[in-house]
Every structure is written in C-alpha cells, then in structure tokens.
Design goal:
Layout lengths: L13 H7 L14 H14 L9 H28 L8 H36 L9 H33 L5 H39 L30 H9 L3 H8 L7 E5 L7 H14 L7 E6 L8 H10 L4 E6 L6 H7 L1 H20 L8 E7 L1 H10 L11 E5 L6 H8 L18 E4 L16 E5 L5 H4 L32 H8 L16 H12 L6 H26 L1
Parallel strand pairs: 1-3, 2-3, 2-4, 4-5, 5-7, 6-7
Helix pairs in contact: 2-3, 2-4, 3-5, 3-16, 5-6, 9-12, 10-17, 12-13, 17-18
C-alpha cells in the first residue's frame, strides 16, 4: 500500500493536522495492490478451479476465477485495512519475511496444483456427461477473460471506495472522523441500494423486455403456419398466427399430427388439440385467460380424455420433450394449452417474473377450472398441470391455492424446479428420514414423488393416491440446487452420502466461492446432454407422465418402446432443424 502522507501547513489545528497525515489510498487506476489481498485472492483462484455441478466453458471459468479472486482480494485488503485502523501492531523485521514466504509457498503450491489439474477435473465431468474432452488450449481464454473481468471489478471497487472516501472526508470538516465515516458510509449504502434495486434493476428488466420482444416476432427454423382448426392460429381460431409469439408458433407447429401418431400406433389416432395465447393476443391477463378458455371450448377440448394446462417458461416455451409424450400416450385424445406472460429468457425471468408467473398460472387455472367443474363429473376430461423450470413455480402456485381443495386435479408434473420454488424447498426440508436432498421421499410418496433418473418413482413405500404429483429433477441442475445460502452454509446435497450420482465426487463446498460456481453454472445448464443439468429427456418425461396418467394396461416395456421411438424422432427433427438453420 502507499505510505505517502499529505503535508499539513503550519498553523493548522491539531485535528486538521491529524487528518492531513492519514495515508492516501491508491487511486482508481494506480497499479498498487495489497500484498495480503493478492495472497488470499490467489488462494481463492485455486478454490474456483475445483469442479462444480457442470463442465465449465473456458470463458465461464475465467469469470468464476476472477470473481473468486476479487472476493479473496477484498477480504484480505479490507481485513488488513481494519487491522491497521485498529492500530494492531504488524509483524516487523525478519518475521514479516518468514511469514510472507511461508504463505506465498503454501498458496503458490495449492494454486499451481489446481491449475495443473483443472483440465483433467473438467474432463472427468465431461466423460461422465458423454461430452468431448477439453483441450489445454482453453487456458488462454480462461486467463484472458479472467484478467479482464478482475480488472473491471477492481476498477469498479476502487471507484466505489473513492466515492465513500470523498463522502466522509467532506463530513470530516464538521464532525469527528469516526462519526463521519459511519454516517457517510451509511448514507451512501442506502443511496446505492435504492439506485441498484430500483432504478438500475427496473431499467435492466425494461430494456431486456424491449429487446427480447423484437426476438419474439421472428420464427425458429422449421416453423410452418398451421392449417388445423384444432390449433390456435389456424382456420377459425380466435387468435391470429402472428400474435402467438415465437415460442407459441413453435409449440403449435411442432406438435405431432394424427398421421405422426399413426406412424407409431398403426392407426386410430386423433389430431391432438393445441391451444396457445401470446402476449400480443389480448391486452390484459384476464382477457388472455378468457381467450384461452374460448379456444378450448371452440376446439372441443372438453370432449377429449384429458386437458393439460402448461405454465410456460419466461419466453413462452413449452418443451416438446414434456408435452409430446402426452400426445402419444393418449393417441391424440388430449388438449394441451398455455399462455405467454413474458418475452424474457428464463435466466432473467426467474428474477423478474415470479409474480407474473404466479398470476398467470392462477388466472389460467381458475377460468378453466370453473368451466371444468361445471361439467358432469363422469363426463369431463382428466385435468393435469405441467411446468418446466419457472413454469414449475407457476404450477406450485396453483397446487398451494385453495381453488382445488373441493375437487382435486388428477395430477401434475414439475420439471427442473427452480431455487425460488417455495413448496419444493419446504418438501425437501421436510423429507422422510433416510432419504436424500436430491431424491427426497415425502410422506412415503402417497401424493408427491420425486424423480431423479429412470426407475426412481417406485422407491417410496406408500400407496400412491389418485392425485399424483411428480417433481422431475437432476442432482446436477444448478437451477434447482442454487441458493444464496451457499454463501455461508454447506448444502445437504453435497454432504457425504447425500451426493447425487451425476455430481462430481471432487466437488466440495467453500464459503463465498461455491455460490459463484453454482450461479455461473446456470447459463450453461441448457448446453449439456439430456439427462444432466437442466436438460430433461423425452424418456424421463414419458416415464413420469406414464406414472401420473396410468394408461390402461400400460407396462414398463411399453414405456421403453415408446421412449426409444420418441428419442429417435427427436434426433431426426434436430438434424433437420440444424440443416434448415444452416
């Protein structure tokens, strides 16, 4: 740190002289650093290189290491500053050299070993996930991104420190120094909190919504306008094709037809009903919910064997892997419906759209449920709920509402539940003794069951009732495993035998570090193979739906046969879409 002191003119008061003699901190762009901060920052870099839930892209690793370094640097520099502020004596003479060399040697060895082993650790996870190995040539990207990110964070931190120092030096003229520091710091923290949580956050969400609303007007590859009267946007529909939105048009266009179903069943299939209401379809949520009901009535959905109300993800997405299996299970005798509530992708929507997700799910359910309840009990369709990711949060909102107490629904599937799902968190915490955090058993599985991998729904010993609710999740899914509490406490899912089979045995918990590792896993959680992270396969969804809906005479062999067909069909469609995209 700098030791220069400002000179006090002769004749000034003793208090002013003491203020003038205080150390001057480094300026924003001055290349001076805290030795203690650098040592602790290097140790945090070593921790950041340890495995996390998912394989890391080099750029993500660079960001993770930079953030970890700055956390360690901030702790070290701040701690040393507080040490000096309290006037605790520092080491002097030969002891400062002995201790410094010892710390540098220990941290140097730990960091060097982590750097040496990082590629191998990443490839262990990649091999488990069935991904290609990472080359050591990734290191220049890690170092470049890490250095740039750390520099930006350091400059920002020093700019904030300069702002705070300027504030309390102004107050220094009117009050004792310690009081000036306390009042100045408190006032600035309040102002910064209000600015960040209010103006900045709202501005970011508004700008993002505007930007992604433009994307919503463009189609995904392979989308073709429907000519079916049984689908929204088609002939006779109350909703125009253009107003369905990007994901709505994809949902309508991608669903199997009766001919597609007959390719598997050999004949006798019906055209499935698909209803969707986009944000542009009506001005208010209530109008969109009413429009959905009118479309369901228009298409004859209440004459089908089952209706599935899907709560979409942020952009309006209903995953084909989650809804297409229902068309095949019911041989087309089913209606699937959803309402768009946002333009934002899920990683922003999970922060910005929790309230609108809940409101949309409840409004949709109430208007459909009221009509459904008015029908004769022996002459109305089965009613199911479905939600992926933030959509599962919407489904939870319905399941915990008083609306379904008198006449419970037939079942629900929630896939990839998020860390903001309150019911999921409560159920996991209240799990039966002996069950794990990644595959909890609640109430012996009599109503709610958790699924992690194939064949796990039969683990509970209780008799599964008529209303069947399933959480499908992966132990390696950061969207569900993340929690702010990772900052200060070790999660149950990392303790000893609690670890899921798809979580690296080398992953460990470290305060202030693991929380950033898991948080930065989220952007890549949808870029791993099916069966890991936030990617849920046709096979997993089919097994869950078969258990929930209980088709007459259905066997495990039927599930295996249909799953193989759906996976092959999905692979063929992905290849075709890739060709169209190119």
């Amino acid at each position: 740190m700098r030791d220069e002191q400002s000179a006090a003119p002769e004749g000034t008061s003793p208090a002013r002289q003491r203020r003038a003699l205080r150390p001057i901190p480094p300026r924003v762009f001055e290349p001076t650093f805290s030795g203690v901060g650098l040592v602790l920052g290097a140790y945090f870099i070593a921790l950041s290189l340890l495995p996390s839930l998912l394989p890391r892209l080099p750029a993500i690793q660079g960001v993770a290491s930079a953030v970890s370094f700055m956390i360690g640097y901030a702790i070290g520099a701040s701690g040393h500053a507080v040490w000096n502020y309290l006037q605790i004596p520092n080491l002097r003479g030969r002891w400062i050299h002995v201790v410094s060399l010892a710390l540098l040697a220990i941290v140097g060895v730990l960091t060097g070993l982590a750097i040496w082993q990082w590629v191998g650790w990443q490839n262990e996870i990649r091999d488990q996930f069935g991904m290609d190995d990472l080359s050591p040539t990734a290191w220049p990207i890690v170092i470049g991104v890490g250095a740039l990110t750390a520099a930006l964070l350091l400059v920002s931190a020093r700019a904030l420190r300069l702002l705070f120092r300027t504030a309390y030096r102004r107050l220094d003229r009117w009050m004792p120094h310690r009081l000036a520091v306390a009042i100045g710091t408190t006032l600035l923290l309040v102002v910064l909190y209000l600015a960040v949580s209010g103006l900045f956050v709202r501005g970011f969400f508004a700008a993002s919504n505007a930007a992604f609303s433009i994307v919503d007007t463009h189609d995904l590859p392979g989308v073709v306008e429907t000519d079916s009267t049984l689908r929204s946007g088609g002939p006779g529909s109350l909703i125009s094709w253009d107003d369905l939105g990007r994901q709505g048009r994809y949902f309508i266009s991608s669903g199997p037809t009766a001919e597609d179903l007959d390719d598997y069943w050999g004949g006798g299939s019906m055209d499935p009903i698909r209803v969707y209401v986009g944000l542009r379809s009506a001005d208010t949520l209530e109008e969109r919910a009413d429009l959905l009901l009118q479309e369901l009535v228009r298409t004859g959905a209440f004459d089908r064997k089952a209706i599935v109300l899907g709560t979409v993800t942020g952009t309006g997405y209903l995953a084909p892997s989650g809804v297409d299996p229902l068309d095949y299970l019911y041989q087309g005798d089913v209606a699937i419906a959803g309402i768009q509530y946002s333009y934002l992708p899920s990683w922003i929507s999970v922060l910005a759209d929790q309230e609108v997700t809940r409101d949309t799910a409840l409004a949709t359910f109430r208007v459909v449920y009221e009509y459904w309840s008015s029908l004769p009990e022996d002459d109305r369709p089965e009613l199911y709920l479905y939600g992926l990711s933030l959509g599962s949060y919407g489904v939870e909102s319905v399941l915990t509402s008083p609306d379904i107490l008198n006449e419970p629904i037939d079942g629900a599937l929630m896939v990839g539940p998020t860390f903001v799902n309150p019911a999921h968190t409560e159920l996991t915490a209240a799990r039966d003794a002996g069950s794990t955090a990644w595959l909890p058993i609640v109430g012996e599985g009599r109503t709610v069951r958790f699924m992690m991998g194939l064949g796990t729904l039969d683990l509970p010993t209780g008799t599964w009732g008529d209303t069947r609710i399933v959480y499908l999740q992966h132990g390696s899914d950061p969207v569900g495993m993340f929690s702010p509490s990772l900052t200060w406490s070790e999660p149950d899912w990392l303790e000893g035998d609690e670890r899921a089979p798809d979580v690296s045995p080398r992953m460990d918990w470290f305060p202030l570090v693991t929380v950033w590792q898991v948080l930065l896993d989220m952007p890549t959680s949808g870029s791993v193979p099916d069966g890991y992270g936030h990617m849920y396969s046709y096979t997993e969804n089919l097994e869950a739906w078969a258990a929930i809906t209980e088709p007459d005479g259905w066997t495990d062999a039927d599930t295996d046969e249909l799953a193989a067909y759906l996976e092959e069909r999905a692979a063929s469609q992905a290849t075709l879409l890739q060709q169209l995209g190119n």
